[in-house]
Amino acid sequence: MTVNAIQKEKCTGCGACVCVCVHRAISMEPDQEGFLYPVIDREKCTDCGLCLLKCPLSKAKPENRTEPEAFACYSRDRETQLNSTSGGVFTELAIAVLSDGGAAVGARYTENFAVEHAAIFSEEDIPLLRQSKYLQSDTQRIYAQVQEWLKKGLPVLFCGTPCQNAALRCFLRKEYDNLIRCDFICRGVASPKVFRKYLDMLESDYRAPVQSVQFKNKDAGWHRFGTRITFQNGGVYYGGRFQDPFMTGYLERNLFLRPSCHQCPFHCLQEGDITLGDFWGIEKIHPELDTDKGTSAVILNTSKGRAAFERIKPRLVWANCGTDEIRTENLCMERAAKAGRNRRKFFEEIDRRPFYELAEQYASPSKFHGFHPRTFLSGIKKILRGAQE
């Protein structure tokens, strides 16, 4: 049996099967929704079953977990805090590993603004991995590369979704003292195809290619984050968290998450040695730690995670807290995000209609956020007209 025995809607697209196949019989190919799935070359496949054996879905629960410790914190370096998704803890962990001559592995944008997992070996490259990308990441053969570095004795920091951490765990088959696995509180990954159509819409109206994308931009504050996209002609697009069509479709309408994300077995497991996230609600629990520039929730799941955190503590402003305090406003720790009621219709029309029309019909913000759905399309057109003036 092969990974084809796994129901498609349960496949996370982690890519572990590709890495483990010694016959190079498996490749990851996008489906109609733009998500990567394993495709088996039957001429190369020997039905050895190794791909199914190493699939993280076959062994979802991590071992050697201890009672977790939790913290609220942010980097003492203001630039690190401001330019990170939350409080900059990943950057501080990466600095520590890189200073030991190791590798930091995480998600970065490609030239075409797809997302892939890659390694860096210099502090100068940390911005490539910093900040949330929200898209399905292409792992290619990163797990095999991580294993190679570990066997050579290099310290490695791996950061990815809970399912990607599970994939690495299953691929390696053993614990490495020189590996720190870091996951994050995840609500699901979005379709790269949808994101590309969103960027195509903006590039068409700004009349220039995208130069940079920054989700969770904090120019208006961490609590009122937005999406800031710059273009090669100097143009700048900014959409608030409740007005930008891509973020509204992702955060509020659940239109284009991967199908497996709606029934994810990993979201509540805290797969990594360290689990990171935004500490939403910090203003109620530790108001002294709310600078509106980002506060991280940190959960230490293993003794290895505790040791790594102790090392960077002097570079952080921190306070102890409980995991229940983190869960209060991070609902995805408790349950997977439900599929939006218009998800199927959205993807049925994704190849036939312009993105802004789909956004108007299916991703318009609710009145609750002070932005009436009927004004959504006119608001988008106003933004785009401004780009042309």
TrEMBL record:
Keyword Iron included in the entry's annotation: yes
Signal peptide as annotated in the record: none
4Fe-4S ferredoxin-type domain: residues covered: 2-31, 36-65
Swiss-Prot/TrEMBL keywords: Iron, Iron-sulfur, Metal-binding
Pfam families per record: Fer4_7, FrhB_FdhB_C
Matching InterPro entries: 4Fe4S_Fe-S-bd (IPR017896), 4Fe4S_Fe_S_CS (IPR017900), FrhB_FdhB_C (IPR007525), Polyferredoxin-like_ET (IPR052977)
Coiled coil region boundaries: none
GO molecular function: iron-sulfur cluster binding; metal ion binding
Protein name: 4Fe-4S ferredoxin-type domain-containing protein
Species this chain originates from: Caproicibacter fermentans
